């Protein structure tokens, strides 16, 4: 593995914060943010040129990364590699197609389950093209050497959008959450389409038939990412809702005693917007402790916020604002071993220039100062940086570098200094 230690504009250990970047209007206003000291090193990426849409996950002693890469044969390959803390395994192909739906915001994933099964999802275009695409799921029980025939979690086959998937390991397999556009199609009886995106869930069992398809919410934002985590009572799912008045705040639904609760707001931002902002939330959970991060521009003031719950997501405290004043959103979230969270987001720095920033937030609303992890771009092609915690407590972050002749997935290891 190639190693080099990075800082902003120089190759050295990074021990900095963004001066003058105290969060505005957060729950700990008046407190002096503590310094967040981190060191970073670039990790040789297993992804080649013309790659993007990375996703990272962890299980046991391994980290997995999947990504899309342009194929020399035409079309794209969905590829993956495993990281053991020192080296990546050789990149391998999960699936190849000339009809993948390739999109900066709606990307494939690879998620391991506790029994060692690997589950991958990708998006396949339908015959109508455009936003006619569906979800495909495959699994591997031999560390990715072979993969099952793809399966479609949604019963609906209408030429509409099905995507923005979140996968979550359950006791009986892997649960999948997705946005489903079936109501955009005219009914079989000739009824007019409602044009409302829905949120749905289904478990794919490791053996036997999959579970039933469940409607979680009948009217949600059209193209914001979903996220899911396992709390003490069961799965929790966060998403951007869409009210009749076009208020698009972040909501949570929870499975309690085997039944999904009605979606409820994490916080009432009151963001009224006529179209989808393409900016979904992130959630982490441990026992009854749940944290959610999200982007909002309510009142035309953009912010990235984090809120905590101590009752499994039933209620949340006042949110903490963590951005530097001009965020583009695209959040991710990792829970630390001490119960705080590390939240990352994209902060605009002028024009299309941006930085990926990181801040630590505690359950009481106190924060660290923010740290710049890498320069980036606010262009769509830069996608959504993703983070995961390694077994040794360090973080691995993957993002799409669009500065150069061709986009390429890059990887950085981040270690907090204590």
Provide key terms for this protein.
418 residues; mainly beta; Neuraminidase; disordered N terminus
Neighbour order of strands in the largest sheet: 1-2-29-28-27
How much beta, percentage-wise?
over 45%
Which of globular, elongated, flat, extended, rod-shaped describes the shape?
A: globular
| CA radius of gyration | 20 Å
Class per helix and strand makeup: mainly beta
Number of separate domains: 1
CATH topology: Neuraminidase
The total of beta strands comes to 29
Q: Tell me what the CATH architecture is.
A: 6 Propeller
Mean pLDDT: 90
Which CATH top level class fits?
Mainly Beta
Instruction: Give the low-pLDDT segments.
Output: 1-20, 24-30
The percentage helix is: under 10%
Ends apart, CA distance between termini: 25 Å
- In DSSP terms, counting alpha (H) and pi (I) runs of 4 or more, how many helices? 0
Topology as H/E string? EEEEEEEEEEEEEEEEEEEEEEEEEEEEE
Note the main sheet: 5 strands, antiparallel
